[in-house]
Amino acid sequence: MTERNEQTTTLNTLIATLIDSINGYEDAAANSEGGKFQEVFRSRASERQQVVEDLRAEVRRLGGNPEDDGSFMGKTHQRFLDLKATITGRDDQAIINEVERGEDYLKEKFETALNSHELTGDSRAVVEKAYQSVRAGHDQMSQLKHSLDASA
User: Which residue pairs, CB below 8 angstroms and at least 24 apart, start in 91-96?
Assistant: First the structure.
């Protein structure tokens, strides 16, 4: 039973972090200048929502209650970004820099979970599949950031 509890806890932590990611992408889409990157952000948010649903299904399969809210740190970070945006303004470069920073954090969370011994069997397979989405999003935002840096 302890193994299931540990897996459920790990899965719920990943779910909360993914919800933060979804919220971040939706915020980025809403604040992107002239809509240049809105579709990219919305597409990532939608993909992340599906990943969350997959992880929630695994938590339910294990007999747990899936997380339905983001993390406290994610909410705190969002409030900080809102304040920062009010003071300094937002442009696509700043938005992509923040999104990429969030992707670094998310990727690290998934790598930590996969490198731990808490996930086994089906739970590990679900997280490995989810990690593919996380890695693709990370790589895409990193490429966007570096292409904007190069053209600046």
Answer: 91/33, 92/32, 92/33, 92/36, 92/37, 92/148, 93/148, 93/152, 95/28, 95/31, 95/32, 95/37, 96/28, 96/37, 96/141, 96/144, 96/145, 96/148
pLDDT tens, residue by residue, 42-81: 999 999 999 999 999 999 999 999 988 655 454 555 554 5
The domain that contains 103 carries what CATH number?
1.20.1260.10
What's the rounded Cα separation, in Å, for the pair 81 and 68? 22
Structural domain range at position 119: 2-151
